[in-house]
Design a protein that fits this description.
Length: 216
């Protein structure tokens, strides 16, 4: 990123175990895929620099464990999320049925204005499909959230899904904030608007050029 600053956006991966959350993050971040299943313990973290409409953004990807035993731990992370990728597996009906419960947890614990993408993953497994595209889309429409079917295996829709979520967040939070004249102007400082802290986030380049901060 050189010397430019970046907006920080916190995204949480949630959904049942084995639906492919970690695989989606690895495909997006490193363009790799493994058929080996290593279940996530607690919460993993990665960050990825992207440019959305010319604006540098640091996507903080919090990859939570889907296993029930980690639920109270992982739900503690919901409160500071800007966005969620709520994932199910199109070849696993219970993972789709459980979307309602995940959505309830998000509504209970996450900021009311957070953005959500519903993601039906493993769409390469069309022969094993038990959840239709229409069912996923209809549920997403009922919740008023964006919908994608993706495949971490082939890479289909992975980048576009993360980009769509980041773009929505940019429009809603960052652009609105800047249009309101709220651009902070110094590095390392922060200010608060609408109960949301706007941080200034120099990138690892560490140069002196600053740009306004982020929603966190
Ligand atoms: N065919 C296919 N397999 C996938 C896809 N995404 C993930 N998998 C496989 O599904 C299994 C589980 O993937 P993970 O990404 O570890 O699942 P997870 O949701 O992170 O699971 P937890 O960490 O337990 O919550 C692995 O064996 C992956 O290789 C996909 O798009 N297509
Ligand atoms: Mg995982």
């Amino acid at each position: 990123m050189g010397a430019k600053g970046a907006y920080i956006v916190r995204l949480l991966m949630v959904g049942d175990s084995a639906c492919g959350k970690t695989s989606l993050v690895l495909r997006f971040d490193q363009n790799v895929f493994s058929t080996k299943f290593v279940t996530t313990i607690g919460v993993d973290y990665r960050d990825k620099m992207v440019k959305i409409e010319g604006a540098p953004m640091r996507l903080q990807l919090w990859d939570t464990a889907g296993q029930e035993r980690f639920r109270s731990l992982t739900s503690n992370f919901f409160g500071r999320a800007d966005g969620f990728v709520l994932t199910y597996d199109i070849s696993n009906r219970p993972s789709f049925d459980h979307v309602i419960g995940w959505m309830r947890d998000i509504k209970t614990r996450a900021p009311p204005d957070c953005d959500i993408v519903l993601c039906g993953n493993k769409c390469d497994l069309d022969n094993d499909r038990v959840v239709t595209y229409e069912e996923g889309k209809q549920l997403a429409d009922e919740y008023g959230v964006q919908f994608f079917e993706s495949s971490a295996l082939t890479g289909q829709n992975v980048e576009s899904m993360f980009t769509a979520l980041a773009t929505t967040i940019k429009h809603k939070r960052i652009d609105d904030y800047l249009e309101g004249g709220g651009a902070p102007s110094t590095d390392g400082a922060s200010t608060t608007t609408d109960n949301r802290t706007i941080h200034l986030a120099p990138t690892e380049g560490g140069g002196s050029s600053k740009s306004p901060g982020c929603c966190q």
